[in-house]
Design goal:
single chain, 151 residues, mainly beta, five-stranded antiparallel sheet, disordered N terminus, signal
């Protein structure tokens, strides 16, 4: 009987290690990571491969489960911009990716803008980010109102 306890403990530890490793990209195993950055805060947009079940992971908190997500794509000769937004518990969240070809050198700014119920806005610019918001194009509706511009 004493030989079973170490094996059980090792299996339990292995399951926690596997679970933690599966969140390495910020999303649970089996979910697609559509947007992430690790600095200055961990931000990840996760969901099913087809775009359903989206939720935002912000420093370990899951936000937006069950919310309506919207995607706006703005494209021009010198600019490509994606804005994904949703509202949860009265706060509005806007993930953005803004690629500008000019002025040179080109710039790609990604981040998150959170507007609380009182209208106070906070912006988080992402560093060391990953983004494939374009994979959600055609899968999400456009927002019903004008997009909130990232400050």
């Amino acid at each position: 009987m004493h030989g079973i306890r170490p094996i059980y403990s090792a299996l339990l530890l292995a399951s926690f290690t596997t679970s933690a490793a599966s969140w390495g990209n910020g999303c649970p195993a089996g979910e697609t990571n559509y947007f992430s950055c690790s600095q200055p805060k961990v931000v990840a947009l996760c969901g099913e491969p087809g775009g359903a079940g989206l939720h935002l992971v912000l420093n370990g908190l899951n936000l937006g489960r069950g919310s309506d997500f919207f995607l706006r794509h703005i494209s021009g000769e010198q600019r490509e911009r994606y804005q994904l937004s949703f509202t949860s518990h009265g706060s509005h969240y806007l993930l953005f990716d803004d690629y500008r070809k000019t002025p040179l050198p080109p710039s790609d700014v990604q981040g998150l803008v959170v507007t609380n119920p009182d209208g106070v806005q906070k912006r988080l610019d992402c560093h060391q980010g990953y983004n494939k918001l374009e994979a959600l194009a055609g899968k999400l509706d456009e927002p019903p109102t004008e997009p909130q511009q990232a400050p």
